[in-house]
Specification:
Blueprint lengths: L14 E7 L6 E13 L2 H5 L9 H14 L5 H15 L3 E18 L2 E22 L6 E15 L24 E11 L6 H18 L5 H15 L3 E10 L2 E3 L14 E3 L5 E8 L18
Helix pairs in contact: 4-5
Bound molecules: uric acid (URC).
């Protein structure tokens, strides 16, 4: 029987890297979840057990923590790019590196209206993340950055319709011109290049996604996502494409008529399962090649 080793990668997943800056009494915190992986010629490690070319996952973990101190943590994209280049330098057998970083945000606790110097409360709508893929070294190096946000839970209490859909003998859904639209949005956008002010771009894209969700009069979640994605591509030349995964968090009107009570769109049951899952990609026509940007990105069409 002929068999062979297929695609493979290895690394340390979910390093919880917390970096405190304490040069002054007013501390700063960065709180990351870092996953690293190398791909390349690791055939022998699998087929014969020869680990000569394998930079241990433990070393990858150590590097993630050491760089948090030695190089500091700026934008997560820069941290990920620096780590990826380091692993390719340290591991001759590797042809590519994938570094995924999530960032949990904290804000200062207010005490008597004043921001505390070293006490924080977890904050933020949504979790910022990035996935950096680097192929090759030196003149052959190519770097791809996909950044995004997950767990961005949004709801609008009107301004959403759903009607005119295809019907067959199993269709029971009523048409509606006024419903709740809610989702826990995952959005990831691919940058066209790496000369980007990452923090500024992230803040602006997030704000734009939220404002378009609010202002687009929705005829379907599909149309809302396309509108949100188009706005990002129109206003952000640095973004080549954007992908969404959006569970339609259904809110069903509760029938209060058995109790003689009218319910004109006021009391709903928030169902957690099942949910419609709407996924879409919006791409600039002249976008550059996506290369390995989307390698192993689960949960997207
Ligand atoms: O925005 C929606 N898109 C759908 O495709 C769909 N299907 C469904 O039952 N409800 C909805 N809502």
């Amino acid at each position: 029987m002929a068999i062979h080793l297929g695609a493979n990668q290895y690394g340390k997943a979910e390093n919880r890297v917390v970096r405190i800056y304490r040069d002054t009494p007013r501390h700063q915190i960065r709180d990351l979840n870092v996953s690293t992986a190398l791909r390349g010629d690791f055939e022998a490690a699998h087929t014969t057990g020869d680990q000569a070319g394998v930079l241990p996952t433990d070393t990858q973990k150590n590097t993630a923590f050491a760089f948090a101190k030695e190089k500091g943590i700026g934008a997560i994209e820069d941290y990920a790019l620096t780590l990826g280049d380091r692993f390719l330098e340290a591991s001759p057998a590797a042809s590519g590196a994938r570094i995924a970083v999530e960032e949990y945000s904290w804000e200062r606790i207010l005490v008597d209206g004043q921001e505390h110097d070293h006490s924080f409360v977890r904050s933020g709508a949504g979790v910022r993340n990035t996935v950096v893929n680097i192929d090759g070294r030196g003149a052959d190096r190519k770097a791809y950055v996909v950044s995004g946000i997950s767990d961005l839970i949004v709801l609008k209490s009107t301004g959403s319709e759903f009607h005119g859909f295809l019907k067959d003998e199993y269709t029971t859904l009523q048409e509606t011109d006024d419903r709740i639209l809610a989702t826990s949005l995952v959005a990831r956008w691919r940058y066209d290049h790496t000369e980007v002010d990452w923090d500024k771009s992230y803040d602006a894209v997030k704000a734009l996604l939220l404002s378009r969700f609010a202002t687009i009069h929705s005829l379907a979640l599909q149309q809302t996502l396309y509108g949100m994605g188009s706005a990002v591509l129109e206003e952000h030349p640095e973004v080549a494409e954007i992908k969404f995964s959006a569970p339609n968090k259904h809110h069903f009107l509760v029938d209060l008529s058995p109790f003689g009570v009218e319910n004109p769109g006021e009391v709903f049951i928030a169902a957690d399962r099942p949910y419609g899952l709407i996924e879409a990609t919006v791409t600039r026509d002249d976008a550059g090649d996506s290369g390995s940007a989307w390698v192993n990105m689960a949960g997207f069409c």
